Amino acid sequence: MSGAPQAVTDRPAPGARWAGRPLLPRLLARPEVGVFLGAVAVLVFFLIAAPSVRQGGSLATVLYQSSTIGIMALPVALLMIGGEFDLSAGVAVVTSALTASMLSYQLTVNVWTGVVVALVVSLAVGAFNGWMLVKTRLPSFLVTLGTFLILQGVNLAVTKLVTGNVATDDISDMDGFGQAEALFASSFGIGGVQVKITVVWWLAFAALATWVLLRTKYGNWVFAVGGDQDSARAVGVPVTFTKVSLFVLVGFGAWFTGMHQLFSFNTVQSGEGVGQELIYIAAAVIGGCLLTGGHGSAIGPVFGAFMFGMVNQGIVYAGWNPDWFKAFLGVMLLGAVLVNLWVRRTATRR
């Protein structure tokens, strides 16, 4: 019995089972290979179709757009690898920003007080989703759809009740705003090009998530519960802790993204966030994560988010009608699913 837990906690890193095979199948076995090739193709396409993309400032804007999606896509991807997904992620971002803004302004306190309270609220929302999931055994679709509707209504109703408007008041002149802005929404120069701090945070979070997935026992737990949670539980994996903690990580991502929005624009619209959860999920799927769980990486969603940012800004730089953006995203999503399917079949073909 004592050897059973060891079978999961010391499970080889994803892709290790291909170690004895030729290089090409081993590369194709990686979940991020397909989206990497797609991201390169999209980049080359817009470099040709929109010459202004070649400028440093344009690429910095693309990276910024990508980072605002990518920071949330990372915990959403981890959750999907664990076999679940969160439909409340988009409105949870706005809930966090509204909490920090209204609490700071209405109580006339240092904005860091609002930031900390918003963190607690965001983590609590994530913990609630995870707790409801494991206690009721309902599908995460139903649990988080309920949370989505609750937060959407609360965001609008509470904001109107407190501020008398659908948006919060400007907090840019309040104590602590400058320090918070520097952490969540500042810019720095590289070779005369201004780069948003969110790009650094995005890549740092991606590196940390990759290390956790591939080099820690917790990463093994995530893959195990996503592959077969009953088998994982039978060999000693703490399924409840893993599931709840993954939802809490989504709450952390919502908090961080919400703070960026708040300190970038100084105010928050209560009706925002609806539909963003689909963007985050799509970036993870394009990045190689399966809706069935147990497969994916943290690097893949980075390329997935980059593709979103590239298309979003590339359409503008090319002078095309931006109304086509969602159509491009749909094509990218379907294309990525087909490419991932082909990659997996090619990698497992004997």
Kindly name the structural category. Answer: mainly alpha
What string, H for helix and E for strand, traces the elements in order? HHHHHHHHEEHHHHHH
Report the β-strand fraction as a percent range.
under 5%
Q: How do the strands line up in the largest sheet?
A: 1-2
Q: Residue ranges: pLDDT <50 for 5 or more in a row? A: 1-19
- Output the number of helix runs: 14
> Portion of residues in helices?
over 70%
For the biggest sheet, the summary is:
2 strands, antiparallel
Quantity of strands, as a count: 2
**Morphology:** globular
* Cα-to-Cα separation, first versus last residue: 35 Å
* Average pLDDT over all residues: 87
Radius of gyration: 21 Å
User: Assembly state here?
Assistant: single chain
Describe the overall structure.
Strands 1-2 form a two-stranded antiparallel sheet. Helices cover 71% and strands 2% of the residues. The chain contains 14 helices and 2 strands. It starts with a helix and ends with a helix. The protein has helices at 4-9, 23-28, 33-49, 56-81, 89-107, 111-136, 140-163, 177-184, 197-215, 217-234, 239-265, 276-286, 299-317, 325-348, and strands spanning 187-190, 193-196. The radius of gyration is 21 Å and the shape is globular. The chain has 350 residues and is mainly alpha-helical.
